[in-house]
Amino acid sequence: MKGHRNLLLIVAVALLTALPLWQIQRPEAGPDGKVAAIFTGADEKAKALVGEIAPTYRPWFEPLMEPASGEVAALLFALQAAIGAGFIGYYLGVSLTREKMQRAAKEKAATDDTPC
Amino acid sequence: MHIMEGFLPIEHAVGWTLAAAPFVIGGLRAVRRRIDERPEQRMLLGVAAAFTFVLSALKLPSLTGSCSHPTGIGLGAILFGPLIMAPIGGVVLLFQALLLAHGGLTTLGANLFSMAVVGPFAAAAVFRLARRLKVSLAVGVFLAASLADLMTYITTSLQLAWAFPDPVGGFAASFVKFAGVFALTQIPLAISEGLLTVVIFNALARFNPQELQQMKVTEPSELRA
Asked: What is the ipTM of this complex?
């Protein structure tokens, strides 16, 4: 029952994530043949908005190191997610095994107690 | 919610760094004290950190046509209290600022304040209120995590509006613009974050009923192993 509910929650998240991909239409190409990008990062949009509100503002510090390409950035993001997910998976696995062993020990103790 | 490197005037950058620093220092002390007192909770603390790592790496599409990411801060704030999440959020932000050019060192203070201070304090406050109002555990966790996520992005919008007021409409007009980029995009993502936090919370509650009770997160009657 609990597992069932978690499954439903995960399906809901998947739907919430997929819905925009299906809802948002790719805009038509402009007269110059360029198509406006969609699903860019909100951080980048905010950066552009700063440029609109304060056109004279110049960032005064540059990142020390930038990923060589979008692919390299994707690699690092994947690494970040993998480290996190790996640890959570390990922890749940340990917990599951611990519970099984506790249950087995309890059963063993119960059978040992009953006189034959 | 990352304010990009160099995109805050220097006095704002310094101000936010000073504002966030005491929380990080206090949080580090709280982590050490917790591990000394209850070494068995070390793994659970790792899970809270790992959850933040995963969620803040996931850039999800939103109905506004932009992508943004959840923060994963709510879970740890519910389990361990808000202060402990400041250094944990700091690790994630530092990783992204140094290796990914996502966020930055000059904006680390401001980003820390929104994600690792306002977020966790909002989560803890909402969770406590929900508990007091006798809302079910799952709904409480959902509300705490999703509202914390949203509050983080509202804070980022406020920070940017303060640094870059609109030449015509001033602070308020600028806030509306930045909130249009951040907070609006974040609404479906905040819902996703809330749901995912309930999923992981269910799993933790299933395996650690005694620990969660000790941490005063749940009532005895709510947990059946």
From this structure: 0.89
Interval B176-186: pLDDT, tens:
999 999 999 99
Range of the domain at B21: 10-222
Cross-chain Cβ contact A76/B99 below 8 Å:
yes
Interface test with A, best of B75, B99, B211 (most A CBs within 10 A): B99
Kindly report the nearest CA distance between residue B67 and chain A, in angstroms. Answer: 5
Domain presence at residue B3: no
Residues B119, B180: Cα–Cα separation, whole Å: 19
Burial code (b: 16+ CB inside 10 Å, e: under 16) for A8-24 equals: ebeeebeebbeebeeeb
Q: What is the rounded distance in angstroms from the CA atom of residue B92 to the CA atom of residue B50?
A: 10
Query: Could you read off the pLDDT of B177-217 as tens digits, one per residue?
Result: 999 999 999 999 999 999 999 999 999 988 888 888 888 78
Question: Hey, CA dihedral for A18, A78, A89, B153, is it positive or negative?
Answer: negative
Q: Where are the beta strands (DSSP E) in chain A?
A: 40-41
Q: What is the reported pTM?
A: 0.91
Domain count, chain B: 1
The domain that holds B189 is classified in CATH as: 1.10.1760.20
Say how far apart CA B11 and CA B184 lie, in whole Å: 28
pLDDT in tens, B50-63: 999 999 999 999 99
* B residues 26-65 lying closer than 8 A (beta carbon) to A: 43-44, 46-47, 49-63, 65
Query: B68 φ, ψ to 5°?
Result: -150, 180
Task: Decide if B22 is inside a domain.
Answer: yes
Q: Quick check: B108 pLDDT over 50?
A: yes
Q: Is B25 on the interface with A (CB under 8 A)?
A: no
What's the distance, CA A74 to chain centroid?
12
